[in-house]
């Protein structure tokens, strides 16, 4: 709900990762490090595609960076935070970052497509319109991540896996937003910590 609140105030965290999620002794969760946050409508400012190619987008840590940013989307949507939350949720089940083998942006693109590249509906059309998309990427479209990793099913069950799949959609077109995450039936199954 913290991310949904940020989004309701026109703030994108822009760097969600496990290091920026703090859990206290009674299970309370706080989101930290808003240093890379985009406030107001600043996310709509143009960015040079050449700088993305040369340096990448530094705001979002590589292992938690969604495909649309890697492919040059700008402005990008609040759903970059939903992707980060999905990466954190996957990491909790795996015991390590989902994309920890990626050393640079190109490897990250290929890993995302191999692990999460089960596009739905208009996802492929959306991706093909991004500035850095290549038709060569189509051969890397892989499997359905959520159904290929037993640890996700073991930890989250069917309803939790459905949410994880919606959070890790390769395209923001079909990715769930933060308010949708808050309203998802999976969260109703979790026990809230007592108030501090």
Question: What would your notes on this structure say?
Answer:
With about 200 residues, the protein is mostly helical. Helices cover about 45% and strands about 5% of the residues. It has ten helices and four strands; from the N terminus they run αββββααααααααα. It has helices spanning about 1-10, 50-55, 65-70, 80-95, 105-115, 125-130, 145-150, 150-165, 180-185, 185-190, and strands at about 10, 20-25, 30, 40. It has a two-stranded antiparallel ribbon with strand order 1-4. A two-stranded antiparallel sheet has the order 2-3. Strand 2 (about 20-25) and strand 3 (about 30) form a beta hairpin. Helix 4 runs antiparallel to helix 8 (about 150-165). The chain is globular, with a radius of gyration of 16 Å. The protein starts with a helix and ends in an 8-residue tail after the last helix.
